[in-house]
C-alpha cells in the first residue's frame, strides 16, 4: 500500500512555509489570514496572498531554508524502507533542496512558485475542487490505489479521511478526534517506521 507523507510540520519540525513568511514575508498578514482559512478564504487563497509579500530571490530563500529548516528524526529510515510520496501545499523549489541535503530522493507532489521581484507567484498543482470538501485539496492527487497517510494540519484533513490508515499529530489529530475518526499518534518518523514494521511482521505471522 502506498505511503503518503505531508511535508510541513510532518517531515519538518516546524512549518517551513511559516518560517519563510516570518523571515521574508509579512508575519502580521499570516496571523490575520490563518483564522479565515475554511471560513471565508481557501487555503490556496491564503498561500497566494502571503507569498505575494515575499520578494527575495529564490536562491537566497533556499539558502536560508537549508540552514534553518529541520526535519524530524527517522526521515532516512522511512525513505529507505517505504519510499513514501511527499505531498505538500508548499513548493517543490523549497522541498527538494532539503531532501537533497538529507540524502533522500522521493517523489514530491507539491505546488511550484515563480519568485518574482515584485512578489512570488504561486503555481498550484491542482485547482480542481474536491467533491468531498469543496476545495482544491490533496485528496484529488491521491486518487487510485489505497494509501496510508501521515500528516499534521489543516491541508491534510480531506486526504486523511480517505486513507486506509492514518498517522496524525497536532491539528490533524485534533480534527480527527472531533470527527470520531481513528488514527495513530506519532512524535517523529521513527514511530511511523516502527508501526509499519510491526504490521508487516503481524502479516507474515498471519500467513503462516
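-> sequence recovered:
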Amino acid at each position: 500500500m502506498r505511503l503518503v507523507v505531508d511535508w510541513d510540520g510532518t517531515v519538518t519540525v516546524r512549518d517551513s512555509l511559516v518560517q519563510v513568511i516570518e523571515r521574508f514575508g509579512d508575519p502580521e498578514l499570516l496571523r490575520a489570514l490563518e483564522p479565515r482559512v475554511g471560513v471565508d478564504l481557501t487555503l490556496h487563497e491564503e498561500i497566494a496572498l502571503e507569498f505575494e509579500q515575499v520578494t527575495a530571490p529564490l536562491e537566497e530563500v533556499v539558502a536560508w531554508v537549508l540552514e534553518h529548516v529541520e526535519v524530524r528524526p527517522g526521515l532516512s529510515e522511512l525513505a529507505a524502507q517505504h519510499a513514501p510520496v511527499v505531498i505538500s501545499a508548499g513548493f517543490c523549489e523549497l522541498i527538494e533542496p532539503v531532501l537533497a541535503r538529507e540524502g533522500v530522493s522521493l517523489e514530491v507532489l507539491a505546488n511550484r512558485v515563480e519568485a518574482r521581484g515584485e512578489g512570488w507567484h504561486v503555481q498550484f498543482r491542482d485547482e480542481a475542487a474536491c467533491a468531498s470538501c469543496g476545495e482544491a485539496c490533496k485528496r484529488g492527487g491521491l486518487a487510485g490505489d489505497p494509501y496510508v497517510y501521515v500528516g499534521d494540519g489543516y491541508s491534510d484533513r480531506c486526504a486523511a479521511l480517505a486513507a486506509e490508515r492514518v498517522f496524525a499529530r497536532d491539528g490533524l489529530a485534533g480534527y480527527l478526534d472531533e470527527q470520531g475518526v481513528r488514527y495513530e499518534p506519532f512524535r517523529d518518523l521513527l514511530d511511523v517506521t516502527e508501526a509499519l514494521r510491526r504490521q508487516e511482521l503481524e502479516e507474515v505471522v498471519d500467513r503462516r
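The chain has one domain: 2-207.
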